[in-house]
Design a protein that fits this description.
The complex is a heterodimer of chains A (248) and B (571). Chain A is built from 11 helices and 1 strand. Chain A has 248 residues and is mostly helical. Chain A has one domain: Up-down Bundle (Fumarate Reductase Cytochrome B subunit), CATH 1.20.950.20. Chain A starts with a helix and ends with a helix. With 571 residues, chain B is of the alpha+beta class. Helix content of chain B is 35%, strand content 12%. The chains are: A mainly alpha (248), B alpha+beta (571). Chains A and B meet through helix 2, helix 5, strand 1 and helix 10 of A and helix 3, strand 8, helix 23 and strand 17 of B.
Amino acid sequence: MDIFLWGVLPYVMVVILVGGSMWRYKFDQFGWTTRSSQLYESKLLRIGSPVFHFGLLAVIAGHVFGLIIPQEWTEAVGMTESIYHFNALFVGTIAGVGTLAGISLLIYRRRKTGPVFMATTKNDKLMYVVLVAAIVFGLWTTLASVFWPDHDVTYRDTVSPWFRSLFIFQPDIAAMAAAPTSFHIHTLVGMVLFMVWPFTRLVHAFTAPLHYLFRPYIVYRSRDKGASVAPRSGWSEVGTRDRDTTKR
Amino acid sequence: MRVMAQMGMVMNLDKCIGCHTCSVTCKQAWTNRAGVEYVWFNNVETRPGQGYPRRYEDQEKWKGGWELNKRGRLKLKAGGRVKKLFGLFANPIQPELKDYYEPWTYDYKTLVDAPLGDDFPVARPKSLITGKDTKITWSANWDDDLGGTSEMGHLDPIVEKVRRESEDKIKFEFEQTFMFYLPRICEHCLNPSCMASCPSGAIYKRVEDGIVLVDQDQCRGWRQCMTGCPYKKIYYNHKTGKAEKCTFCYPRIEVGLPTVCSETCVGRLRYLGLFLYDADAVTAAASVTDPQDLYQSQMDVLLDPNDPAVIKAAREQGIQEDWIEAAQKSPVYALTKVYKVALPLHPEYRTMPMVWYIPPLSPVVDLLRDQGHDAEDKDVLFGAIDALRIPVEYLAELFTAGDADLVTGVLQKLAAMRAYMRGISLGNDPDESIPASVGMDGATMYEMYRLMAIAKYDERYVIPKAHAEQAHDLEEMGCSLDFDGGPGMASMGTSPFGEASGRPTPVALETFNALRDRQTSDSVAGADTLAGRVNLLNWDGNGAPAGMFPQKHPTEPPVDAREDALEGGSS
C-alpha cells in the first residue's frame, strides 16, 4: 500500500498534471480562462479574492521552503530547529488561516449571490471540495503540531526527504510512511488536487501573466501571421508560394 | 517614417436620427448570444445624457485611457504594470453589471397559459442573468431622447464639467434644450489603452488595417482591458470568461463590404475609408502636454496619401498599390484632413481614436428656425453659433478637449456650406465670399457638399479588399478545418470545462452551419444553443419557441409541436 501511495501515485499525478495541462493547452485554449464573476458581484470578491490568492502564494512559498530546503542547510546558517519551527508555524498559520478565510468568503459569495451561483458548474463544485479539503488538512497538520507537539517526527525528517527523493526517482517510501497520518491525508488530498487541476478553472494559474512586465504596450500582429495555423504534418500545399507575399 | 494603413470611420452627427438601427443590426450580427446580452458593440447615446455604461466618461472614477506622468511620459491612468499585476485578483475599478444593466426578457408564456381568472395575466420581466423575476430599472438607452433629463441631466459628466467651468446652468427646459445623438463603436485607436492594459497581450492591432481585436484563445479573463478602455467599449462575456469588442466587422471589411452598422444606417451618416499614418510618431503625438493640442498632433500623425514621399514610404512598408489608391480616395481622410470638419471623440484620453465625428449644427439650426429666423443665412448662423455658448462648449468637451474655438470653426464651415449651397440652389451666382470667410474656396466647398450630402455607396465606403493572394490566410479561414470533428462541429455547446470551452468555431463556419441548420432542420433552431433563452432579439424566425406564441386552443398541442410536425412533413 505504501509503495503505491508514496512510490507510484506521485508519478501518476505528475503524468496527469503535466500531460493533462499540455493536452488542455493544446485542445482548449478558448476554455482557458479565470471565468471571473466580478461582473456579477464585486464587493465581497474584492476582499475575498486578494486575501485568498496572496495567502495561497505565501502558502506555496512555505511549502517550497519546508519541502525543498534540507534541515542541514538551515542549521548550517545558524537557524536552530526551534526558531525554524516557530517561524514555520507562525507564518504558516497566518498564511493558512488567511487562505481559508479568503476561500470561505469566496464560497459564501458564490452560494449567496444568485448570478454567481448560477454560473457555477459541477466541475467548479468538485474543484472547491478538493481545494478546500487540501487547505483544511494542510492547516490541520500545522495546528496539530502546535497543540500536540510531537517533536520526534517532524515533516522535515519524513515528508521532505521523501519529496526530494521523488526527483531522483528513488522515492524514500519508508520516510514518508513514518510521517503522521495528518500529513498522509494532506499529501493525498494534495495529489488529488493536482490531478484534477488541469481539468478545472485552476489552470489559469499556469498562465499568470508575468510577461506583462516585459512586453511592449502596443501589440501589432499581422493578419497572415496571427491567423495561419501550421499545416498538419504530412500535409503540404499544392503549388508554389505566392511571389508577392514572399517578396516582403 | 513607418507608414501603416488604418481603417477609419467618420460619422456625420447632423444626419443621425437616433433610430438605433445600427445598434440592433450590430447586435443581431455579433452579440445575440448568451453571455453578451448586455453587450452593445454599437450603441447610440442621446446627448446630453449619461451614455453607456452609465457615466463612462467620468475618468476620475473609471481611470480609463492614458495620462502623462511627472516626466511627461505616457502612463496608464489606472496604474503601471506592477500595480496592474497586484490588482489581478480583483480588479479595483471594474464596471459591474449594474453600471450597464441587467438584461431581461419577459415571461410571455403566462400570457397564454394563465388559467381563467378575474385578472389579466401579466408577462413579468425575467432577468437573463438569474432567471428570476426582476425589476427593470435601467437599460442601454434608458435616457433616450432626453427621457428623465429633468431628474438625471446633471449626471452627465460633460454637463457637470461645463456647468462647473461656466458657473452657469445648462437648462433642460424645453425651449432651451439642445439634443443630438452620438452613435459609438470601438474607436480602433492608434494608441489603445485597452491593449496596453491586457496582462496576457491578447488584444492586438492588425498590421494591415489597424483593426483592434481580442484573441479569444489568448484572453484569460483578467478584465484589465475593461478598465483600460476609456470609452468602455470592451465587454466581458460572462459565460465564456473572455473579453469581446467591436470587430469593425473585419470579415466584411476584408472582402470590401462596409461594417453592418454602416451598411444599415438609415441616415447614411457613416463614412469608411483608409488613413495612412506614421506609426513611429504616435507615441510622441499622444504625449503632447496640453490636451487641447492633441487634436492637432493627432492630425499630424495622419499622412497625405498624395505626397510622393509618403507613397514611396508606403510601398517600402509593403502597402499594396490598390490600398494606396484607396487611401487617396478615402472619404474619411477628406473629411478629417482636407475639409477639417471631423473631430475625434475625447482626444484628451490620449488613445488617438480613429472614429471621427462631424459635430452637429442641427441644434443651432433648429433653434433658429423655431424662433422664426432664417436658419440658412450665413450671418444669422454665425451669430447664433457665437451666441449659443452652451452647446458649443458641450461639443468642445466631447471632441476637442474643451477647445470651443475649434468647434466653432467647424460649425461655421457647416453653416457656410448651407448658405453657399442655398445660393447655388436658388440659381444665384455662387457667393465666393462665403467659403472665403471660413478659409475655403468655392470648389472645395462644393466637393465637401457633394461628399456630405449626395455621395453614393461607393464614395462613402472606400474599402480595399484584403489581398487575394493572402486569402488563404484570412483570419477566419486560417484556423478552420483542422480541429477534431471537422467543420461538422457546428456549435460549441457545453463541455466539461464550462460553457463554450474547446476550440472555437470560425465565424464563417458558424454562419454556414447556422444557415444550413435553419434551412434543413426539423426543429426550432436555437433552442439548444441559446439554452432555452429565446426572446424577440435573438429569435431567428424559425419555428415557434415555447411561450412566444399563444396556443390556439387549450386542448391543442403547443404551437411549436405542431410546427415541428408541419415542417417535418414539408421538408
